[in-house]
Amino acid sequence: MNAVIDQIGDLAEAGEKMIERLRRKAFLPESRKELNVRFGIAEAAQLLGCSTNRIRMAEDDGRLPPAPPTENGRRPGYTVEELLNMRSVLGASPERAPLDIPAIVAVQNFKGGVGKSTVTCHLAHYFAVQGYRVLVVDCDSQATTTTLFGFNPHFNIQREETLYPYLSIDPTQTDLLYAVKHTAWPNVDLIPSNLELFDVEYELAAAGSDGGSVLAARFRKLKKGLADLARNYDIVLLDPPPALGTISLAVMQAANALLVPLAATTPDFCSTVQFLSMMDQVLAQLRQAGIDVDYQFIRLICSKYDANDPSHAMVRAILEQSFGPALLPVPILESAEISHAALRMMSVYELERPIGTPRTHKRCRANLDEALGQVEALVRQSWGRVTPAREEDIVNAA
Ligand SMILES: Nc1ncnc2c1ncn2[C@@H]1O[C@H](COP(=O)(O)OP(=O)(O)O)[C@@H](O)[C@H]1O
Ligand SMILES: [Mg+2]
C-alpha cells in the first residue's frame, strides 16, 4: 500500500467532519435553515413603493395584522412572510401577469469560480425580497448552490431528490414536481443537486451510437419539465455545471435568457470569449438538428469587481470595448461580506446583522441591489410591462 495515497482518504474524512460541524452550526436539525432577516417599516414601505402611513393605516383598520410589539423600545421588524402578505393586501405584488412568460435564466460560463453559484443564490434572494416567486435549479453536481441553501448535498440529498431520476437513461419520473423543495424563504423553492447527478453524463457516454438521440430526448425533456414547473413562478434560475456536457447543453436549451458572470481578469475574459464562441457553434448545430434556442436577453456581468485594483479597471475597459451594451454597466463588487456569508452557507440577503463593519455590509447590500436590479429590469422588460408607478412619485408629481 502506498502511504501517501492513503492520505487522500484521511483528508476527505477530516474535511467531511468539518463540513458536518459547520452544517450543525448553520442548520436546523431537519437541515432547513431558519430565516431571521427582518425589515423595518421604512424599508418595507420602500420595497413596496408606498408610504409608511399606508402600512400603518392598514394595520390600524385591520387589513394587516397589528404591527409587531416593540422590544426594548424597538420594533423587531417584519419577516419576509409578513412582507409578502403586505404586498398582496396592499396590491403591491410584482408578480407577472398570467400570460407573461416566466423568465428561465441560465447563469452560465464554462469556467469554474467565476461566481455562477454566488450570483444565482443572490439573485434568488434578491428577487425574493422584491416579492417574486422564484425557483432555483441546481444542475451542477458540485452542488454549491444547494449548500448555500442550507442542504448538505452528501448527507441530506439523495440521488432521487435531484434531477437524476428525470434525466436518467432509465427515468423513474415523468415530471419534475417530485424534486421541488421548500427553502427557508417562503417564496423560493429549490431543486437540489449532489455528486450523483454526474451519472447523467456517464450514461450518455455509455449510450454509444445511440448517444445523439438520447441527447435530443434529454433536451426536450428538461425543457418541457422546466416549462411546466415555471408556470408556478415568476423567475427560474438555472445553475449549470462549468463544462460543456449533456446537462449544460440541456440547460442552455431549456433557458429563455442567459446571464454570463465573469471576474474582470484576463483569464476570465479569455475563457468567456471561448465560452461564447463554443456556444455559438453549439447553437448553430442545435438549429441544424431542428432544436431552436431563443433568448429574451443575453448579458455579461462582472461578478467580483475590485474597484481598488487597477488591473480590474483595465480589464473592465476591455470588456466594455468588446461586449458593448451586452455588459451590464453595474458590476457586483468583490466583498468580504459575500465570502464571509458563503462560509456560513448563506447569502448576504440572509444575514441578520453585518459580519464586517456596518459600512461594509451596507455598501455590499446597496451594490447587490443595484447590480441585480439590472437583471430584474431585463426580466420585466421581457414581460412587456413597465414598473408600476410608485405612490410617492405620483404624490410628488401632483
Ligand atoms: N462578489 C464577490 N465577492 C467576494 N467573493 C466572491 C464574490 N463572488 C464570488 N465570490 C467567491 O468566489 C468563489 C467562487 O464563486 P462561485 O459562485 O462558487 O463560482 P462558480 O459557481 O462559478 O464556480 C466562492 O468562494 C465565492 O464565495
Ligand atoms: Mg458553482
CATH topology of the largest domain: Rossmann fold
Number of helices: 15
- The radius of gyration over CA amounts to 22 Å
Small molecules bound: adenosine-5'-diphosphate, magnesium ion
Q: What is the overall shape? A: globular
What is the domain total for the residues?
2
Q: In sequence order, what are the helices and strands, one letter per element?
A: HHHHEHEHHEEHHEHEHEHHHH
By CATH, the superfamily of the largest domain comes out as: P-loop containing nucleotide triphosphate hydrolases
Helix content: 40-55%
By secondary-structure content and strand pairing, the structural class works out as alpha/beta
Average residue-wise pLDDT: 90
Weakly predicted, low-confidence segments? none
Q: Report the sheet with the most strands, covering strand number, pairing sense and barrel closure.
A: 7 strands, mixed
Strands of the biggest beta sheet: in what spatial order?
A: 3-4-2-5-1-6-7
Structure at a glance:
The protein has 398 residues and is α/β, with parallel strands linked by helices.
Explained architecture:
The protein is an alpha/beta fold and 398 residues long. It has two domains: 41-89, no CATH class; 103-391, Rossmann fold. Helix content is 47%, strand content 8%. It contains 15 helices and seven strands. The chain has a seven-stranded mixed sheet with strand order 3-4-2-5-1-6-7, with helices on both faces. Helix 5 packs across helix 14 and helix 9 (211-230) packs across helix 10. The longest helix has 25 residues, at 358-382. The radius of gyration is 22 Å and the shape is globular. The N and C termini lie far apart (83 Å). The model has no long low-confidence stretch (mean pLDDT 90). Bound molecules: adenosine-5'-diphosphate and magnesium ion. Residues 116-117, 140, 142, 144 line the site of magnesium ion.
